[in-house]
Write a structure and sequence with these properties.
Layout (H helix, E strand, L loop, with lengths): L8 E3 L4 H9 L5 E2 L14 H17 L8 E11 L2 E3 L5 H11 L3 E12 L4 E13 L4 H10 L19 E5 L2 H5 L3 H10 L13
Parallel strand pairs: 1-2, 1-3
Antiparallel strand pairs: 3-4, 3-5, 5-6, 6-7
Helix pairs in contact: 3-4
Pfam families: Maf (PF02545)
Keywords: Cytoplasm, Hydrolase, Nucleotide metabolism
Protein name: Nucleoside triphosphate pyrophosphatase
Length: 205
């Protein structure tokens, strides 16, 4: 029996955290950034916004001639707090206000996922949700964290795998989703496309 040819996998995201999680799972995606204007995308709810952004990013990359035949994964995350979608803070002042609003409370990290099969000319998508319970960092700790610059580059102004980890008391759901991509959801979406995730394992990983 002839083995299936190995499918190219493209990550339509510049997130090093997403790339790292996929590599840890035995995959070896190439990275092509979509360039989508995130501020131009709107939706009624945070979960729908995350999904719309993921679909937009995956669709833009999937349309490129050089990726035809490949599988393209697009993701986007927002933190839902008080019904509002919070992405990356615009500046240090916003990051500080965000943390003061989040401490001692819980929010829901919504990550939209979209996978295009450019060979079959179809895509599937879904959103993963994880509840995040924030601790109560002091004003001094918040100031130090914001000064590190890290919260300016991540949705919700925090991450589980960085300097803000001590300020997060716990989560309910998939931890990878909070970092940037839900591997169980990726597996289910690939299955909808007729692709087994083990078929994408890289022999070099």
């Amino acid at each position: 029996m002839t083995a299936k040819p190995h499918r190219r996998l493209i990550l339509a995201s510049q997130s090093p955290a997403r790339l790292g999680l996929l590599r840890q799972a035995g995959l070896a995606p190439e990275v092509i950034v979509s360039g989508v204007d995130e501020d131009a995308v709107t939706a009624p709810t945070p979960a729908e916004l995350a999904l719309a952004l993921a679909e937009a990013k995956a669709s833009v990359v999937a349309a490129k001639p050089e990726v035809q035949g490949a599988l393209v994964i697009g993701c986007d995350s927002v933190l839902e707090l008080d019904g509002q979608a919070l992405g990356k803070p615009a500046d240090a002042e916003e990051a500080t206000a965000r943390w003061k609003a989040m401490r001692g409370r819980a929010g829901t990290l919504q990550t939209g996922h979209c996978i295009w099969d450019t060979a079959a000319k179809r895509y599937v998508s879904g959103t993963a949700s994880t509840v995040v319970r924030f601790g109560e960092p002091s004003d001094q700790e918040i100031a130090a964290y914001v000064a590190s610059g890290e919260p300016l580059y991540v949705a919700g102004a925090f991450t589980l795998d960085g300097r803000s980890a001590p300020f997060i008391e716990g989560i309910e759901g998939d931890h990878g989703n909070v970092i940037g991509i839900s591997l169980p959801l990726v597996r289910r979406l690939l299955a909808e496309l007729g692709v087994g995730i083990t078929e994408l394992w890289s022999p070099d990983r």
